[in-house]
Amino acid sequence: MPTAFLEIVELPDGRIVLRRGDDQESLVTLEFSADARAFLQGQQVEVAKAMLNVGVQMAGRLAEGGLLNEEGTRVLH
Length: 77
Hints:
Helix content: 25-40%
Strand content: 15-25%
Order of helices and strands: EEEHH
Structural class: alpha+beta
Oligomer: single chain
Shape: flat
Strand order of the largest sheet: 1-2-3
Number of domains: 1
Number of helices: 2
Radius of gyration: 15 Å
Number of strands: 3
């Protein structure tokens, strides 16, 4: 994916999306269940930010081939 300004937005229906700053199309969508929202006590946006941050970092590593071990196989844990 080309380098672009990314933004995290909470939509009116409660979904949290990652999208390019110049586009309304979602790249990733997170939706927490009512039980998860209750457990997180209103902090679902902070949890979503952390999840998306790690996801973007992992995508960068994949793009660089950094998730392969010495044998050239992908490590899944």
